[in-house]
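Quick start: what a row looks like.
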Amino acid sequence: MNCLVSDVETVSIPAVRTQEFRVPYTDQPVAPVLRGQGFARLMHTDSAAYLSLRSLEQVMDAVPQHMFILETDGTLSFVNRAGREYLGPIDIFTPTERLRAIIHPDDFEALWVAYRDAMTHGISVEAEARVRNKSGEYRWFLHQLLPLHDENGQIVRWCGTRIDIEEHKGSKEQAQRENLALREEIDAVAMFEEIVGGSPRLQAVLARVTKVARTDSTVLITGETGTGKELIARAIHKRSDRANRPFVSVNCAAIPRELIASELFGHEKGAFTGALQRRIGRFELAEGGTLFLDEIGELPAETQIALLRVLQEREFQRVGGNQTIRANVRVIAATHRDLPAAVEAGTFRSDLYYRINVFPLEVPALRDRKEDIHLLAEHFIDRYAKKTGKRIRSMEKKSMDRLQSYPWPGNIRELQNVIERSVILCDSEKFSLDESWLSTVIRSSRPLAQEMISQEKELIEAALAECKGRVSGPAGAAAKLGMPPSTLDSKIRALKVDKHRFYTN
């Protein structure tokens, strides 16, 4: 580039000035000659200089990157052969509209501002923007605009270049996706570092994990909160053919309903208030790998429809976009809810349920695998003793008996928290447990899902009793419970509530 600039600087041409600044256009395909007014005058007044510039034009035509020359008012004087062959003919003559015709709409504003700053302040600029070729396809280019000076230091015209960076950009974006997924995986707070236990119930689950891992089948993991459903999902991923690709986890219950679609599928700039730039969704981050949808039962209805389409068609669109994106992603879902009951109640789509329930896996509650409590306790004691710099060599038998007899409604997560707290407070080499930590709250020994269903049934029956069996209307049970009558009817059928027994004359 420096040699080209020095060649031009040997030519003395007054700068072409205009009172009104116009946005420069970079790529009008013209015949391979410099056609600005300055060059026309040059051709008649200084044949040696013209021949010098004609030689420069031939050099630019031999360069494989796109190159062009602009006059100081933004008029296009010359485009080299590489640029002309890429763009094809363009029947637009206004500089700004020419630029709009070839630059991707999402990138135009930034490039326009860069060119304007260059020509206003007389500086060199660089910017990345996608350029459309003669077939209508876009590729990423690095755009440069450099001022060319005469011997008096005046800017007489501008030299622009475009370097194709499509492959670099694609690999960079893929690396960013994988790095983000890797950071999320590293930063995730795992319940324990490996699956610990040898109970028959756990071993049966792990045997099924081994069988399904090598397939691409969708897996639905069920079980109470704290049983380690995500750990099972990670085990499936690590034993699959996708193990060297990203594992991306999403807790559907932790994301606001209005943002969950954007979180999963991404969004385009301006798709909604606050969408200041394009965002890559979790499906794109997990490309080629595994997407774990925890608490899938909390998805709103509209997102259930979008997810069903991805599972059926293997494609999706970002929120606010119209570009179809292919999805090579294995989906593993998990829930602590009773999804069949949710289907009966009308809060979860039946077609989505059957789509995700291809290979069901139920993770047993900790109270159903008491043989593993001793191993888990030793595992956590060792972990937290190392973290706190303590040496704990043994455990009081009384403390182990307490751990074994407790029902653990919070499952492994609760056990982990209790052990961590005990290690922090432990002042000797013998682990001991304060019994009060396990009995501060009286808990039901029933699974959480059954407990929730029972409570819901009791609330409905109480409302029906108060409303004398009436479901709809201002004085009906649906109004009292704050739900549509159709929803309440579905729940009554799903929960097998006999509403007729509440009728009174």
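That is the whole record. The longest strand covers residues 138-149. Confidence is low (pLDDT under 50) at residues 1-39, 42-46, 182-193, 440-446.
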